[in-house]
TrEMBL record:
Span of the signal peptide: none
Summary of subunit composition and partner proteins: The complex comprises the extracytoplasmic solute receptor protein and the two transmembrane proteins.
Organism: Thalassospira lucentensis
Membrane disposition: Multi-pass membrane protein
Protein name, UniProt field: TRAP transporter small permease protein
Superkingdom to which the source organism belongs: Bacteria
This protein's UniProt keywords: Cell inner membrane, Cell membrane, Membrane, Transmembrane, Transmembrane helix, Transport
Major localisation: membrane
Residues spanning the membrane: 15-38, 50-68, 89-113, 137-159
Pfam families hit by this protein: DctQ
Length: 182
């Protein structure tokens, strides 16, 4: 069951990463078109605004992918000197801290979106974008990151209670340069 859930989260995050990459590619094309058109005196307008919204969405949604691909930066000076059980324990502490921060940020993002909706806020730009649109994408990325990290906490705890320290370490352990070389 744990392996199935882990695989489902990783597969979902890979699909999300692909979609985020496509959106980012579309944004790059929009910016290039804006630059080229400006050379002939034409402007699409709003490319910089849209790219800012995309970057906020990419950042919030991309963190879950980085989490499941073990790509987050970690200083593992002590971790590498420990046996598997010790590494798994440090990994558990790290994922609990990460899940706590992700949950706190997601929780704190909601009041921002709530005020935007209540006030009917729009961007002070030519596009007059209803700000609830990019903020909903941003908040949903943080919520998914919090959910993904909390599920990994639970799965790590289950694996450690089963005394499967190798699997627990592989689930949320950092990929260090030393481990990658071996």
């Amino acid at each position: 069951m744990t392996n199935t859930l882990i695989a489902a989260i990783r597969r979902t995050n890979r699909i999300i990463a692909l979609l985020v990459g496509l959106v980012l590619t579309g944004t790059v094309i929009l910016i290039i078109a804006e630059i080229v058109l400006r050379e002939v005196g034409i402007s699409l307008g709003g490319a910089e605004e849209i790219s800012g919204y995309v970057m906020a969405g990419v950042a919030s949604w991309g963190m879950s992918y980085a989490l499941t691909e073990l790509a987050h930066v970690r200083i593992d000076l002590i971790r590498l000197r420990l046996q598997t059980r010790g590494r798994a324990l440090l990994d558990l502490i790290a994922i609990v801290a990460l899940a706590g921060v992700a949950s706190l940020v997601a929780f704190q993002c909601w009041p921002v979106l709530e005020k935007t909706i209540e006030r009917g806020s729009r961007a002070n730009t030519a596009l007059e974008t209803p700000l609830w649109l990019p903020q909903t994408i941003w908040l949903s990325g943080w919520i998914w990151f919090a959910v993904s990290s909390c599920v990994l906490v639970i799965l790590s705890l289950v694996l450690m209670m089963r005394r499967d320290f190798d699997q627990a370490d592989a689930l949320v352990g950092a990929r260090s340069e030393v481990e990658l070389e071996t």
